[in-house]
Amino acid sequence: xxxxxxxxxxxxxxxxxxxxxxxxxxxxxxxxxxxxxxxxxxxxxxxxxxxxxxxxxxxxxxxxxxxxxxxxxxxxxxxxxxxxxxxxxxxxxxxxxxxxxxxxxxxxxxxxxxxxxxxxxxxxxxxxxxxxxxxxxxxxxxxxxxxxxxxxxxxxxxxxxxxxxxxxxxxxxxxxxxxxxxxxxxxxxxxxxxxxxxxxxxxxxxxxxxxxxxxxxxxxxxxxxxxxxxxxxxxxxxxxxxxxxxxxxxxxxxxxxxxxxxxxxxxxxxxxxxx
Length: 275
Fold this sequence. Notes:
five-stranded mixed barrel; single chain; alpha+beta
């Protein structure tokens, strides 16, 4: 297994070098100047909603790349950001984001009798997203194939009665990073082909959450950055394939919503009831 992982990592490194050599042209994407291949991947994932995990296709054409873990200098965990390589018509393009079919929960949460929320900072620094167990299992299999790491269930709240998983998704809410955007999908051709999707930006997730008519569960595609945490001492870097498991951390960067759903019951204060 270790030999296969090393071969996969070597192939990823060689592919990354080729991408860097080929991608010297800079182009505009939504007012930002980015490398041409990155712009192609951004359009593919954000604009056309292609190759996301869920109902669209059983095996998205994306590879999870090797994660370089680093220790922050304190604590017992190593951290690393993930990036991904999309196969877009035979062109391999790197991107730091993946998409998943999800339901995003913007419903109000219960408060203590003294008026304090029971889920602190909900809707500002984090939200629940719900998705099928089979989608999480598929993501786990891609992580294993691309990085060698087994993924733990830490951070996933399972509801076996409905085969759903709730994930605590972080939201950027401090200076330096844009708040996650919330888009309403206006139109899509029946063919579902590329370029068939039209959407309009409503605001940030935090802004939308403040309005009562948006305080529902919205179904759509969530686009996330993903990082990995692995327990280990500062002087011993963890490696895959020796029994350790990695925790995945999701940060929601954008939502494309098809509308609301009444079929998913929200968590209101005590997710432990699902266990």
